[in-house]
């Protein structure tokens, strides 16, 4: 059998990266990579909109990437956007064009998920030992700090500072002055300072850097004999002095410093010096792995069902919220059974959305809002699911989970679909019906309920109970009769039968 080919695309704030990899004998084998400098962050105007020029640069790059994706199946492609796309006000319009150019779905991932994937990618290329690592990744718009051991991140911090953002904010793009660079470093330290106590308390045995900025700094230090083993603070001070001579960057010639890197080298160096000084880092080595490698490894875990971070996140959430876990699993089992009974008739499938898992995760977590208050717990649950740091989830998946949870009971109608993307609305409405029926059946929290058989034909649903069951359970029968009327508001006809 031919090995499966995977593709990972990282739409960063400075560069777009594509890697192609395959699994050979349980190991990740990289077979191709491509990088283009897009400078997406430089196209973000004061109102938070991506300007036309930046969008066109991005779309041209993605069109070229699309050629390399030909022949790779959709479930084996993952493309993610990071800081700049998290911030862009007009990201929705851009994403439609970007996905059409790439020929694949693009997920906008939150900062904590970016950090998790970076750590996963870096860890794959490190020795298998018990050392605790500090991993630092400087992107175009954000910098991630992760502490962990083996493949397990113990602390993930995403900060709003990156090589492009800092270079822009402190006028370091064409020339780096002593004053501007000094203020850039101090501003970065103000951003990092609130996180320093936690990071230093956790501690680390070795510091590892990832990303273009850190790799470039390491290359410059080594090629100019300012360091012969990774990155040091004294070496970066020498680089700083070489860049702040009063010359324009276009006039400065340094071994290892490419013309492409010059506009953002000042911002990246300011971030890294700030981190070294505040965290008392003595030496940092550079990893060849980063976010895109982490994406492929994460896909491998999902494909082989060996490790899906999303499942672990939901289980951790319900454990920490101290809800009735037995009830959560009862509702989830019932919802999964209903899905199995109707998914063919209802065509519950999507090329990228894990519909069955979304239903299960919503069922498991629908009561987490009780941790805040039983009053309006649905709203609390929805808020938690949409805004919590849930490892493995992208923003769209969290939004859909929140929507399912918000409407899993009480009145609802088709107008409540307005917040959903059109491509998801019909599928999500059907998942919601399954979740609502599951929560209704288990409202009494009985342990011994035998779920009825559910059959569907279009929007006609039939719940078939054992003979006499509805008579023996009049309260549940009444509850389901109320649900019959509620479902009518969304265009469904539910029949209860024995």
List strands and helices in order, with pairings.
Layout (H helix, E strand, L loop, with lengths): L4 E7 L3 E10 L2 E11 L14 H18 L7 E5 L1 H5 L3 H12 L3 E3 L2 H13 L8 E7 L4 E7 L2 E8 L3 H7 L8 H15 L3 H7 L3 E5 L1 H12 L9 H11 L18 H18 L4 E3 L4 H13 L5 H12 L4 H18 L12 H11 L11 H11 L7 H12 L15 H20 L11 E5 L2 E5 L4 H4 L1 H15 L4 E5 L1
Parallel strand pairs: 1-4, 4-5, 6-9, 9-10, 12-13
Antiparallel strand pairs: 1-2, 2-3, 6-7, 7-8, 11-12
At a glance:
It contains 19 helices and 13 strands.
Structure commentary:
This protein has 498 residues and is an alpha/beta fold. The protein folds into three domains: 105 residues, Nucleotidyltransferase, domain 5 (2-Layer Sandwich); 162 residues, Exopolyphosphatase. Domain 2 (Nucleotidyltransferase, domain 5), CATH 3.30.420.150; 142 residues, Hypothetical protein af1432, CATH 1.10.3210. The protein is built from 19 helices and 13 strands. The chain has a five-stranded mixed β-sheet with strand order 3-2-1-4-5, sandwiched between helices. A five-stranded mixed β-sheet has the order 8-7-6-9-10, sandwiched between helices. It has a three-stranded mixed β-sheet with strand order 11-12-13. Strand 6 and strand 7 form a beta hairpin. It is elongated, with a radius of gyration of 26 Å. The protein starts with a strand and ends with a strand. The mean pLDDT is 91.
